[in-house]
Amino acid sequence: MPAILRRRPPQAAEPRTHPDAAGPAASPTGSLMLLTLLALAVILSIPAARAGDVRSADMLAHTCAGCHGTDGASAGAAMPSIAGFDKGYLVTVLTDYKTGLRPSTIMGRIMRGYTDQEIAAIAGWFAARPWVSTDRPVDGQIAHQGEQIHERACATCHADGGRDQDQASPRLAGQWAPYTRYALETCRAQGMRCQPRKMAERVLELSDAELAALAHYYESQK
Amino acid sequence: MRIPTRHTPVGSGAEQPSKRLDQPEPPLPVAAQRRRFLGAGASALAAAALGAGGWLVPSGSARAQAAAPGPKARVVVVGGGYGGAIAAKYLKLADPDIRVTLIERNPRYVSCPLSNEVISGERDIESLTFDYRGLTRRGIAVMQDEIVAIDPDAHYVRGAGGARYNYDKLILSPGVSFDYDPIDGMSEAVAETTIPHAWKAGPQTLLLRRQLEAMPDGGVVAIVAPPNPFRCPPGPYERAAQMALYFQHHKPKSKVLILDAKDAFSKQRLFQAGWQEHYGDMIEWVPAAGGGTIEAIDPKTRTLTGLVEDFQADVVNLIPHQRAARLAVDAGLTDSSGWCPVNQQTFESAQAPDIHIIGDAAIAGAMPKSGYAANAQGKVCAAAVAAAVNGEPPPAPSYVNTCYSILAPDHGISVAGVYRLQDGRITPVPDAGGLSALDADPRTRAAEVEFAIGWFRNITADMFT
């Protein structure tokens, strides 16, 4: 259960107080007067626009659920599940959306609303959620075709049937096939601008049917 | 105004609702009852209203203090839609020790988003219908009842049959009500039988669908669009596209006429380009400046009286002027605008403590009255209520809006907004959010339809599972 609340002593109850103001000093045995003065000193030392403005990871990440599902487990085939993704990978992707390096229909518009620190907080929050694979059966024959493409072109980086992940490679196993296919098609449409280059080289050679088969295969892996 | 003493409940009404059902109501008009009910302020009433173990039990209530330990706090959520279902769920997630009761008048919920596809025949209304078992499984008490009165002093709400629900904190997500007065000839009865607004998904959605099916080819359907602010700003214009989609395949000589009380609307250029691309001149928009404002209707002849000229249509879909739901109006939670002013960090009413208002009924700064906005507000409000219950200050809020419109099976458009609190007001983050590109390629347009459907699956799963 994610904790939503940040504890602060009652004296720091002014809503626009910087949350860090009372953080480390929030001992119940501390001098309340001293705390108040310390809090005031911190408030006065930071720009007014930042006061009370640091938003928790819970608060930031919960707004994503309308499109990516509660706790990042997507219920919609066109949106990826993002729970349990590598934090570094998420930071890279969300930042690339923000800067426009990674093309998108809507993610760029949304990510431009967040600071780098907030993006890191969102990424860390989703990285800490459990991965949830899709729960529907997949066409076995198409998945088999996809597996052969995977072994030939993808398995070096997306190891263990797409279960392995790291800062550069997202988990693919159990992901919605329509999303994976769309992402692969987007990469192919970008040509050599698609990152990383070694992926672009491989994806460019695949047909629509091969991309679909590959996506099916990954969804079949749980 | 004072509540009559015979209204004063005896004991904890929530534990014995059946007794109250037997009590005769005073022979007052309902609205008058509500006003008097709201005016209750006697401290004896307050003591009686707070049940055993209540979080805010006043000192001196020996009965309450003698009782076994109860919940940390009782939160009642009224309205089980895009805002209320989310507030209830995320409150329970934030603090399982809070006792959460969700009160909704219907046993099942029908989503307004995507309901324009029911009108066009692209979708079955069952695909938009949800029950509340996912929330009960989370430990939320879901009550089917219609709340007709709020007593902010004694901290309880009352159901239509007299059942009483005590709260320490109340969250209202009651939606909108319709103001038929500005258009002569309109009434709730006319809307339900002849001139559907279909602005709450359900029977009127199906009525409008049947009217389109019965309309002869070459007919004209008039959509009368309301002035701002209103629920779902792009909705009337998506509806026009969906109607045209149906006509294109079944009644290609027909027209959609939008008679607007405004001179501009949401995603306007994207809509107008999409209409032209798919439906040519089938859709005509008449802005206020062009005589689009409608003042009267004859429901029998379907004649609309405009400021400049009259219009005749075969089917009329008149979307009335809107304000906050009647419950909020009757409880005195609205201001002169007809909507509820709130603290935009906590959504606590500016007019009554311990009552929070979210969703379409609330005045939420720059946020539109959309399903996603209600979802975001429900989460901010839940976090603020959980903090208050635990004696903590409200957390810094974050708000997002995302709204898709489907113009054709392969043509979707969207608007997004990212907001933060600035000087007490929900304010767009500069350079973030905005519209789909005007020059987007067909692949992007098609992808936005898939994302619209994925959006719907995820946001409803967020509400009901």
Kindly describe this structure:
The complex is a heterodimer of chains A (222) and B (465). Chain A is mainly α and 222 residues long. Chain A folds into 3 domains: 34 residues, no CATH class; 59 residues, Cytochrome c-like domain (Cytochrome Bc1 Complex, Chain D, domain 2), CATH 1.10.760.10; 81 residues, Cytochrome c-like domain (Cytochrome Bc1 Complex, Chain D, domain 2), CATH 1.10.760.10. Helix content of chain A is 48%, strand content 0%. The two termini of chain A are 24 Å apart. Chain B is of the alpha/beta class and 465 residues long. In chain B, helix 5 runs parallel beside helix 13 and helix 10 runs parallel beside helix 11. The radius of gyration of chain B is 23 Å and the shape is globular. The N terminus of chain B is likely disordered. Chain B has 14 helices and 25 strands. Chain B folds into 2 domains: 204 residues, FAD/NAD(P)-binding domain (3-Layer(bba) Sandwich), CATH 3.50.50; 209 residues, FAD/NAD(P)-binding domain, CATH 3.50.50.60. At the A-B interface, helix 2, helix 3, helix 5 and helix 9 of A face helix 5, helix 13, strand 22, strand 23 and helix 14 of B.
- Measure the end-to-end span of chain B: 43 Å
Parts with pLDDT < 50 across at least 5 consecutive residues of chain A: 1-30, 40-51
Uncertain residue ranges of chain B: 1-64
What is the number of domains of chain B? 2
The Rg value of chain B, from CA coordinates, equals 23 Å
Oligomeric status:
heterodimer
Based on the structure given, which CATH architecture of the largest domain in chain B is correct? 3-Layer(bba) Sandwich
Please give the structural blueprint.
The complex is a heterodimer of chains A (222) and B (465).
Chain A: H1 32-45, H2 57-62, H3 65-68, H4 87-99, H5 107-111, H6 116-127, H7 140-154, H8 159-162, H9 177-190, H10 197-203, H11 208-220
Helix pairs in contact in A: 4-6, 7-11, 9-11
Chain B: H1 17-22, H2 30-38, H3 43-49, H4 62-66, E1 73-78, H5 84-94, E2 98-104, E3 109-110, H6 116-119, E4 129-130, H7 133-136, E5 141-144, E6 147-151, E7 156-159, E8 164-166, E9 169-172, E10 176-179, H8 188-193, H9 203-214, E11 220-225, H10 235-250, E12 255-260, H11 268-279, E13 283-286, E14 294-298, E15 303-306, E16 310-312, E17 315-318, E18 321-324, H12 326-330, E19 340-341, E20 355-357, E21 362-363, H13 371-389, E22 399-408, E23 411-422, E24 425-428, E25 434-435, H14 442-464
Parallel strand pairs in B: 1-2, 1-9, 2-5, 9-20, 11-12, 11-17, 12-13, 19-21
Antiparallel strand pairs in B: 3-4, 6-7, 7-8, 10-18, 14-15, 15-16, 22-23, 23-24, 23-25
Helix pairs in contact in B: 5-13, 10-11
